[in-house]
Design a protein that fits this description.
Two copies of one chain form a homodimer.
Chain A lengths: L4 E2 L9 E3 L23 H4 L5 H7 L5 E3 L2 H7 L7 E3 L1 H7 L4 E6 L10 H13 L4 E6 L3 H12 L3 E7 H6 L1 H9 L3 E5 L5 H9 L7 H14 L3 E3 L6 H20 L6 E5 L4 H15 L7 E7 L4 H4 L1 E6 L8 E6 L21 H8 L4 E5 L1 H14 L6 H20 L4 E6 L7 H8 L10 H8 L8
Parallel strand pairs in A: 5-15, 6-7, 6-9, 7-8, 10-11, 10-15, 11-14
Antiparallel strand pairs in A: 1-4, 2-3, 4-5, 12-13
Helix pairs in contact in A: 2-11, 3-5, 5-6, 5-11, 6-8, 11-12, 15-16
Catalytic activity (chains A, B): (1S,2R)-1-C-(indol-3-yl)glycerol 3-phosphate + L-serine = D-glyceraldehyde 3-phosphate + L-tryptophan + H2O
EC number (chains A, B): 4.2.1.20
Protein name (chains A, B): Tryptophan synthase beta chain
Chain lengths: 454, 454
């Protein structure tokens, strides 16, 4: 029998998160205060985050221990399995070896609970009673809803309106785990009310929803804000994915030539990639290609400006140096709602700047074609976001068929598509569209980039 | 660290299915031909099933080897994890130890692929090019669709119309795996057309859908029929669940005092229970309670007649001795579509007759309450069918709280509820109903039981 899954036991689970910051050859550019334009201090961020998470955001420690109570909760679904894609390889007639890390097996169906539970834990430690957040497709919101329920914290989710209407199942999941969910823009915040006044039909965006959730945290006592991607501490929590994957690749007696993940804000990609970037930096595996895959219609890494920008639409968050399409850019309504973000994690932007990672952009219909081929060979139905990683994986494997190279490819299967079947329905009926890169809209949005003086 | 999951490696997967027939103290009553009323022969069944599966249906062998090619495919998700429900136990303040076998992790989201793949495999071996089947909630149809795709067999699914309309995501899943799906009753069969003529608004039932699928198989060359529950060979394939669970309970240094599963036709319950019935029969664990849980509105085991009846609405199938509400009984529209069946597996009916298993019936709202408590403690959102097993498990654990007994309870977590969120929405909005046992309708339906002379 050939082995399909590489399975770790609970006792083999990593006990620390890997913080790449001390290993960076050039430190991260400072984060700037939205009011003063000066580098933010931890104290500046206390209005929206608890201090223990802020300290992780700036930590100089290479390894940060995962608290015991959190490890207990990770065991609900971790370690996750690593798969060898035997049947996909055969269908592609490729000499490449394809592996994927299946993060779908969490109760929320994606990698997001890795950080949702961690953030709920640290908020609980800090005495926080209520957390506000935004969500696009709902992967993050549902993960945080579950995490808050486990730690007995109230949870309020601002869900991008177009997703709220298109993905009712995600909304119901959040409510099943006890969260309160409103479509964003909502009448519950000043910013939401202003936008609704200007445009009652506004479909919303992640940028707007972040503005609302941040305002909510700032204006409600005992409430902090939580973000499911972009920030250093979020990617830190996700490094458990790549650390497990390294152990499992060793069980398979392999090391990846290419590591692939889809990127919106960057959390699942960072999670699988950063422990492999560590090996590039320490010289044990210098030549590994690390490939981020984004939607052609929202291509921050491949087409964005490397500039300071806000994380949200209203310009309430600190300014971060990152690849950005402009915080006022409204991405086209692709079904991969989790990838509809104007910016890119500053840490991943930095790795891109240092040429430690590369990026590619793919079109929507092609991602669903890849997802269909994956479902019909490997069985699993994938989230539209994940289909981006599958598309790039198949493309790399097909290149190997041409060149005859037996490369080893590892990708992060970030989530299942069980609640995204309406998107598959459109694909199956030939009603899915591609979206050209909206160059003019981006140019317009980038006019709104903040002026900074560093 | 306490252990949450008990994980087997692929090499630990059972290599045989356990056939209980040779161990039964009293043999199963014969199955009767619908036309002649005489015991059916294997040849009689060849119109709808391939001979290799028919031979399994009647096999006297205790252990039937699982073919190598099938083991390879089982490895897509098997062995499945066994969980200790630490957080649920704590919430219930019970001294009971609760374990569950998580069958959700298959790509189709339930235990059904255990037999779907096996049936597709044997049909392929027999040269069959096309399979017809019925599905209620869609768990079975989607599993067979996936299995047929893996074996390059065409798949036609008759989906009970009320589910077709209420659960579009399941329909889209089947189509994603390449199946053709129609709402039943459909204009594609003579029986469907007749029913539609009498009642164009007929919501359908499993019994009707089975009639259509059987007619389809009989009238299309190269086509056989596949059934996802009820029959001996189906329960045989599912015994891999209980065999794995026994190994995993041993890893946890435990043996269950009570084994629980929900029952419609009986496949997940049979799968987990039968290997434990083996231990009752061979005397190693005589006192294990084995508890089947059914909906109060469709209670074949607890209120049905022990009689010969047809498996389908139109009376096309052989007649089986089973607990039945009458093949013309139309169960109320509970959300656990997979449990809306008039009869009960003849094998499980026989085990009930021999007092080797017991049964209980529960109300719909109470099952969703149980599912909510499970989601909020263990994390996983369960199928409405599975919520029946959770309800009974919680009730047994609460009895332990009263008596102080530290019983060990094992239940089969047969599937996830990701595509059943509309039902949770109704529950959360207080719009879910209970259904009284429809005694008059059952009495009426049972007038239609066939007369037999054995």
């Amino acid at each position: 029998m050939v082995q399909t899954k590489f399975i770790l036991q609970e006792k083999d689970m990593p006990q620390v998160w890997y913080n790449i910051q001390p290993d960076l050859p050039v430190p991260l550019p400072p984060v700037l205060h939205p009011g003063t334009g000066k580098p933010v201090t931890p104290a500046d961020m206390e209005a929206i985050f608890p201090m223990n998470l802020i300290m992780q955001e700036f930590s100089p420690e290479r390894h940060i221990p995962i608290p015991e109570e959190l490890l207990e909760l990770y065991k609900i679904w971790r370690p996750t399995p690593l798969y060898r894609a035997h049947r996909l390889e055969k269908a592609l007639q490729t000499p490449a070896k394809i592996f994927y890390k299946l993060e779908d097996v969490s109760p929320a169906g994606s990698h997001k609970p890795n950080t949702a539970l961690a953030q709920a834990y640290y908020n609980k430690q800090a005495g926080i009673k209520r957390i506000s957040t935004e969500t696009g497709a709902g992967q993050w919101g549902s993960s945080l809803a579950m995490a808050c329920k486990f730690f007995d914290i109230e949870c309020k989710v601002y869900m991008v309106k177009v997703s709220y209407n298109m993905k009712p199942y995600r909304r119901i999941m959040m409510e099943t785990w006890g969260a309160s969910v409103v479509p964003s823009p909502s009448p519950d915040t000043r910013i939401g009310r202003e936008i609704l006044e200007r445009d009652p039909e506004c479909p919303g965006s992640l940028g707007i929803a972040i503005s609302e959730a941040v305002e909510d945290a700032v204006t409600h006592p005992g409430t902090k804000y939580a973000l499911g991607s972009v920030l250093n501490h979020v990617l830190l929590h996700q490094t458990i994915i790549g650390q497990e994957a390294k152990k499992q690749m060793a069980m398979a007696d392999c090391y990846p030539d290419i590591v692939i993940g889809c990127v919106g804000g960057g959390s699942n990609f960072g999670g699988i990639a950063i422990p492999f970037v560590e090996d590039k930096l320490n010289g044990t595996h210098k030549d590994t290609r690390i490939l981020a895959v984004e939607p052609a219609s929202c291509p921050s890494l491949t087409k964005g400006l490397d500039a300071y920008d806000f994380g949200d639409e209203a310009g309430m968050t600190p300014m971060m140096k990152m690849f950005t399409l402009g915080h006022q850019f409204m991405p086209p309504p692709v079904h991969a709602g989790g990838l509809r973000y104007h910016g890119m994690s500053p840490l991943l932007s930095h790795l891109s700047r240092l040429k430690l990672i590369e990026a590619t952009a793919v079109q929507q219909i092609e991602t669903f074609e890849a997802g269909m081929q994956f479902a019909q060979t490997e069985g699993f139905i994938s989230a539209p976001e994940t289909n981006h990683a599958i598309r790039a994986t198949i493309d790399e494997a097909l290149k190997c068929r041409e060149t005859g190279e037996a490369k080893t490819i590892l990708f992060c299967h970030s989530g299942h598509g069980h609640v995204d079947m309406a998107s598959y329905d459109l694909y199956l009926r030939g009603k899915l569209s591609n979206y050209e890169y909206p160059a003019e809209l981006v140019k317009e949005a980038q006019k709104g980039l903040p002026k900074v003086n560093v």
